[in-house]
Specification:
- The protein is of the alpha/beta class.
- Helix content is about 35%, strand content about 10%.
- It is built from seven helices and five strands.
- It has a five-stranded parallel beta sheet, sandwiched between helices.
- Helix 2 crosses helix 7.
- The longest helix is centred in the last third of the chain and has 20 residues.
């Protein structure tokens, strides 16, 4: 099944599909680069390991299509939350590894003319976010965009915000890639607000008696996914992409 068409019916400006002369012509007008950063991490038995990657990549493509800003190849690995049991297929980097990789990549892209980097991620684990937040450039601006920093509480019925593999993740995947979602395997696992905060900060492991997800994935729907996606896309576009690019 094909995904819904890109925003505004335009084609994303994917770096991997462009030649050097094309890149130079685009960044002469807008020297920004979107860098989607995903994870290879279980989100419960009902969702694919690339859940966060698929969401970030699709959003990056839509934002590129709507703005003309170039989008880099997706980094498909991030810093995963610890778990009390082994999940086959999980692949995680240490925080300093992701940090160094991004430092190296942004350094070479900055040398070629990019002046602003938009690191886009759908993974709000604190250690992962810290790796992105501490990236260093010479003079280029770095903006870290956590898509779940957008308020979606009013669009959810069983949660006040995003939880790993829960209502929001599952709804987004039902909208973007329904063929990869197995709702018959979805299992709810509630966390107290305090436990949820500890989990994001790395002080609480994914409980072994959960299916790997937390929250209420059984409440997910395609309609919620559509509304959540449009809310996130539009807010990020308004706050990040409608502003003038830096040409420092």
């Amino acid at each position: 099944m094909r995904l819904p068409p890109p925003a505004a019916g335009n084609t994303p400006q994917r770096l991997k599909e462009l030649g050097p002369a094309q890149v130079a012509a685009i960044i002469a007008d807008d020297p920004r680069l979107i860098v989607p950063v995903g994870t290879c991490e279980q989100h419960g038995a009902h969702l694919p390991l690339g859940c966060a990657t698929i969401i970030a990549e699709r959003l990056a493509d839509d934002l590129s299509a709507a703005s003309g800003v170039i989008v880099a190849p997706t980094l498909e690995y991030g810093v995963n939350a610890a778990a009390e049991c082994v999940f086959p297929g999980n692949a995680s980097m240490r925080k300093k590894t992701l940090h160094r990789m991004l430092n190296d990549l942004l350094d070479t892209w900055e040398a070629s003319g990019f002046r602003e980097f938009i690191l886009l991620t759908a993974h709000d684990y604190d250690a992962h976010q810290e790796a992105l937040d501490t990236v260093i450039t010479h003079t280029a601006r770095v903006r870290v965009v956590d898509i779940y920093a957008v308020d979606i509480a009013d669009l959810l019925t069983g949660q006040s915000g995003h939880l790993h593999g829960g209502e929001a993740d599952t709804s987004l995947m039902l909208y973007l890639a329904p063929e990869l979602v197995h709702m018959e395997l979805a299992r709810d696992f509630a966390l107290s607000p305090n436990a949820a905060r500890r989990y994001r900060r790395g002080n609480l492991r994914v409980p072994k008696d959960s299916a790997g997800s937390v929250g209420h994935p059984t409440l997910a729907t395609v309609e919620k996914g559509n509304a959540i996606y449009e809310r996130i896309r539009d807010r990020i576009r308004e706050r990040i992409f409608l502003a003038a690019a830096s040409n420092a």
